[in-house]
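Q: Sequence in, structure out?
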Amino acid sequence: MNENQPETPSKAPSVSRAKADLYRLAYTESRARVHDQTEELSTMKQRAVQFVAFIGASTAFLVGSVVGNSGSIGAGGQILAGVATVFLIGMLASLTLLLWPGKWSLSVQAQPLLTDWIDSDIHPPGPAIYKELAEEVDKKADGNELELGRRRWLYVAAILCGMGQLALWIALGWLTLS
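A: Exactly. Output:
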């Protein structure tokens, strides 16, 4: 190169710089996936509690109406009341299991990062740490997906049991009116 000509910087990033950016992107996306899972679980829990509160208030009103006129429901009405009670127990059990703390991985532990990467001569800190982090967070997100699937099922079970028992108490309320 001629000494009088200034060097022009390369417009394309170097391969290692491009890889570093992609590793960071992969890590960011992995963290976003875990964050989305956490938000979904939190939203499910909040909605389930609100739903059960609504169902509880409605059921209390309906049960009060039915019990006041319990002499007119007969044996069929007593069976419906028993089934409604089973639905109530199913709803409360589903809600309890939904809200129960479970195995949930949110992030990577710091100690392995410190010993294996930052303080280690074998793996000097650099762009490759983002690759390792992305892989670790993805493993945690995959594990969370199993637990989240179980929680989704509990959420649906709580809603279906709550709707079932409310429908039965409404039917019993109509039976007492006739």
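The chain has one domain: 19-177.
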